[in-house]
Amino acid sequence: MSSDIQKLPTGFGRLWSAQTISSLGDGVTRAALPLLALALTREPMALAVVTAAGTLPWLLFGVLGGALVDRWDRRQTMWITDATRALLLAVTAAAAAFGMLSIPLLAAVAFLLGLGSLFFDTAASSYLPDLLGRRPALLERGNARLRGAQTAMSGFAGPPVGSALLALGRAVPLLADAVSFAVSALLVRSLPAAPRPAPQARESLLRQARAGASYVLTDRLLLGLALRPAVGNIAFTAVETVLALFAHDRLGIGTYGFGLLLTVEATGGLLGAGIASFLGRRLGTGTALTCTAAVEGLAVLGLAAAPNPYVAGLALAVCGAGMGATMVLAPSLRQAIVPGHLMGRVTSSSRMVAMCAAPLGAFVGGGLAATFDVRTPLFVAAGLLLAMTAVTATMTSNRRVEAALRAATPADGPAQPTFPDPVREGAPELV
Predict the structure, then answer these.
(1) Is the pLDDT of residue 80 over 80?
(2) Which residue range is the domain that position 44 belongs to?
(3) pTM (2 decimals)?
(4) CA 146/CA 184 separation, integer angstroms
(5) How many helices (H) and strands (E) in the chain?
(6) For the residues of 74-99, what is the DSSP string, one character each?
(7) d(CA 300, CA 295)
(8) Which range, of 80-94, 195-209, 278-292, averages the lowest pLDDT?
(9) N or C: where does the chain have the smaller number of CB atoms within 10 Å of the terminal CB?
(10) Mind listing the pLDDT tens digit for each residue in 396-405?
């Protein structure tokens, strides 16, 4: 591989910086929201409502959101979305300061943040291949850095900071996340604008949305890449719904300890993101994805059976490593093989299949915990993950992956970056 191909353009550094700052705020809110909800109620189904609300936008608007992103300027979509989320959290922080928080309000905030995530994540996933020229090696490297920053900040640094800030007042962690979104919006606004795909004449928004969904559902590899996180989200959301309660009641962990438990999981995720490319090269992307899925299922089984916080932390670290590697390899593969004019729709359709399963997981987790005990959702989640691994293994095999990459690569080699590359003109690389 040549040194030119290995270089990331300077614009990527600004995108990485924006995500790093925003992810720190996300981690703060990730720890604060369930703890805020837990301070208002100990009813598992009420906690499930807050968890499920954040994923409902993908169910309601997932495919249409992708079609809109394919019509809009992707950079503009990202910075406007972040600015809007900053305003939302600032208003929520004011409500917390005046003692106006409630479960319905937290659910509404989670829903609106999820809607923002739909537009931002779809636009960012569609923007990155243009920035990096759709070259698989660069996409894996770029996604590894973005995923590593997201994991380190949202999982490693953010949760304990969120728990600590919550001790200062209910409004403080929400305000911190609002500031992070505002800074991210400013950084994203400075990125080069991506060229919009040429509009398809006389096609309605609904027809364009259906074309994206059909592209995923009729391609066995893309369908396998979408089904794996769909089943995974049922399992992981069931676990997330009761994790704070499980940590408190079964492991004897307090507020700050819960933040540390999430940090341990994120540490594993950071390691997994770092070794994802290595696993893909040694095992092949398809086999690596199957192995990481199996590791996730076994790790959740270990969490369910954990007799103390130390074993639980180890299980979460291993699970995080599997998830971290998966979330580098799978998006990089999708970005390398999907045509640019369909990228927003395919991304959102794939995410919709995955995210629509999450509300079901939230209610499954809450219902099983209420009917049986807080460990039952964890055992059920482990079984789902292992069954999913077996079902989708052939759909994402090395043979299918290699055939898709060959079909997507032009005869004269990988595409070049869409934007001017200041690195090659002598400017310093930021990342």
Answers:
(1) yes
(2) 3-194+207-410
(3) 0.70
(4) 14
(5) 18, 0
(6) HHHHHHHHHHHHHHHHHHHHHHHHTT
(7) 9
(8) 195-209
(9) N
(10) 999 999 998 8
Please, which pLDDT band fits residue 376 given cuts at 50, 70 and 90? very high
Q: Is the pLDDT of residue 289 over 90?
A: yes
Where does residue 133 rank: exposed (0-12), middle (13-18), buried (19+ CB within 10 A)?
middle
146, 64 contact by CB (below 8 A): no
Q: CATH no. for residue 65?
A: 1.20.1250.20
Least confident of 107-111, 148-152, 381-385: 148-152
Longest dimension (CA), the chain: 63
Into how many domains does the chain fold? 1
Query: Does a structural domain hold residue 416?
Result: no
pLDDT of 168 higher than 80? yes
Is residue 255, in this structure, part of any structural domain at all? Answer: yes
Give which of 414, 410, 406, 393 is closest to 220, Cα–Cα.
393
Residue 393 DSSP SS3: coil
CA 77 – CA 70 distance, rounded (Å) = 10
Coil, strand or helix at 252:
coil
| 418 occurs within a structural domain | no
Whether 317 maps to a domain, the answer reads: yes
